[in-house]
Amino acid sequence: MRILGIETSCDETAAAVVEDGSRIISNVVTSQIDIHARYGGVVPEVASRQHLLTIIPVINQAMTGVSWQDVHGIAVTFGPGLAGSLLVGVNVAKAMALAKDLPISGINHLEAHIYANWLDSSSTARKEVVKFPCLCLIVSGGHSDLILMNGHGQFKKLGRTRDDAAGEAFDKAARILGLGYPGGPAIEQAARLGTPCLSLPRAWLKDSHDFSFSGLKTALWHVVHQGGISVPDAAASFQLAVVDVLVAKTVEAARQLKVEQILLSGGVAANQTLAQRFLADSPLPVLIPPPLLCTDNAAMVAACGYHHFQAGRTSRSDLDVVPSLTLG
User: Fold this and answer.
1) Is residue 323 part of a domain?
2) Among 111, 105, 118, which residue's Cα sits nearest to residue 149?
């Protein structure tokens, strides 16, 4: 079964064709980072207009060498995300589904990130290695969610960020340090040249699976404005504080729940320090997608869509966007 995935939740225009929920036939992503970098963040109106310009060429590129007769369904992100951006992808997907007489399935962007762990870009389809129940940590610019996954389509939210998401905290820290946008890669690159020598706070929020990074960001601001601190040392210290909390709270929750595995996903999962700490500290197997599949892409949407179609979960022609959609 081949599924065409479409993703336009924020500032990446993406389309992909995935076979049987794992084998990537094509995966095309057009980023708007260069456009939004001058503003220090994503401008919603600019993002939606850029999606309008690029969505059809991106889909055509993803369909290169693939016949529409070999496509069995269309999966499209309908939330959460920026309303204007989501509308572009959903409306194009509905039009194509109508024109090609194909079923359509609206996909939760957060659920799609989890399914990046099922993907394999090699020539042979990857055997399913995920074991249930598993604990999923979704860390991105807008979310830091801890989700218990008992099976396909079975999610229970255990924890969330109470203020800044991890990716948002990285962006704000990068602005404080003058490192530019996007903040996550900038902080990671600067941290390689520094030593985590600053004493920055960790919000453990005991007796809770929630996260909080706002206080850490404020502490960094105070330390930097006192002067005399090198940017690489500040970046390394900030990164370590975020990693410490994400890893420790996730591993502790996994122990309490007696899950089989930990699944890492979302743009922040591309951070190699975070990935290495999880692999070193977790007593359980940890699955982490390759960096290109951690950030927003349509292959994860198509992989998730495959399981929706297998379960008979399709959407009607009046599918609409839900910018504040949650999972679990």
Assistant:
1) no
2) 111
Here the tokens at position 57 are 């060429």
**How far apart are alpha carbons 111 and 154 in whole angstroms?**
10
pTM of the model: 0.95
**Is 54 found in the same domain as 138?**
no
Residue 322 maps to a domain: no
Q: Whole domain around residue 86: which residue ranges?
A: 2-121+293-310
* CATH classification of the domain holding 229: 3.30.420.40
Amino acid at 34: D
Q: Which among 163, 134, 151 is positioned nearest to 265, based on CA atoms?
A: 134
Do both 116 and 143 map to the same domain? no
Question: Please, which residues have CB within 8 angstroms of residue 312's CB and are 6 or more apart in sequence?
Answer: none
State whether 103 and 157 are in the same domain: no
Same-domain check for residues 87 and 37? yes
Q: Please check whether residue 318 lies inside any domain of the structure.
A: no
For the chain, how many structural domains are there in total? 2
Beta bridge partners of 27: 16
3-state secondary structure of 271: coil
Instruction: Say if residue 278 is in the same domain as residue 208.
Output: yes
The one-digit pLDDT tens for each residue of the chain (328 residues) are 999 999 999 999 999 999 999 999 999 999 999 999 999 899 999 999 999 999 999 999 999 999 999 999 999 999 999 999 999 999 999 999 999 999 999 999 999 999 999 998 554 445 458 999 999 999 999 999 999 999 999 999 999 999 999 999 999 999 999 999 999 999 999 999 999 999 999 999 999 999 999 999 999 999 999 999 999 999 999 999 999 999 999 999 999 999 999 999 999 999 999 999 999 999 999 999 999 999 999 999 999 999 999 999 999 999 999 999 999 9
Cite the DSSP H helix spans in 272-324: 272-281, 291-294, 299-310
**Sheet with 286-287, edge to edge strand ranges:** 154-159, 144-151, 134-139, 261-265, 286-287
* Residue 161 domain-assigned (yes or no): yes
The length of the chain is 328
Q: Where are the beta strands (DSSP E) in 166-321?
A: 261-265, 286-287
Rounded distance, CA 73 to CA 68, Å? 10
